[in-house]
Every structure is written in structure tokens, then in C-alpha cells.
Amino acid sequence: MTIQEIQQLEDFFTQAGKQQVPIYLNQATVITDYAHFLESHFMPLKLNPDAKVNLPLIHRLKMLKLLIESNS
Known about the structure:
The chain is mostly helical. It has helices at 3-16, 34-47, 55-71; strands at residues 23-26, 29-31.
């Protein structure tokens, strides 16, 4: 994922505003602190966007984006 793609995702979440919690991404992933979730996912992506270890972070962010889009 490129820095530009990361920035686009971050811009989306900024424009979407704070969401009500809890948010269930799947049976095993529940977001209880929305701001912390975003911060903890974007920080590693910005530091090393090409690391394979960050793939689950990207996946969860994209899942959250789809949920927000489908609920608006």
C-alpha cells in the first residue's frame, strides 16, 4: 500500500467522523475505542507501508470503511 493510499483511507475516516461503538468487524474483532483503533492501525502503516506484517491492519481498515459506507 502506498503512502497516498494510506492518506486516502485516513481522509475517509476523518470525513466520516467518529462512529458509535461497539463496532463488530467480524465475530472475533470488536472495536470499543474508535479513535484508538484508527491510531493503532495508521501509525504502523505510516512508518512502514510495505511491511507484510501490516496486511491485517489494511484488511481491518478496509472492512471498517465498507461497514461505514454501507451504513450511511
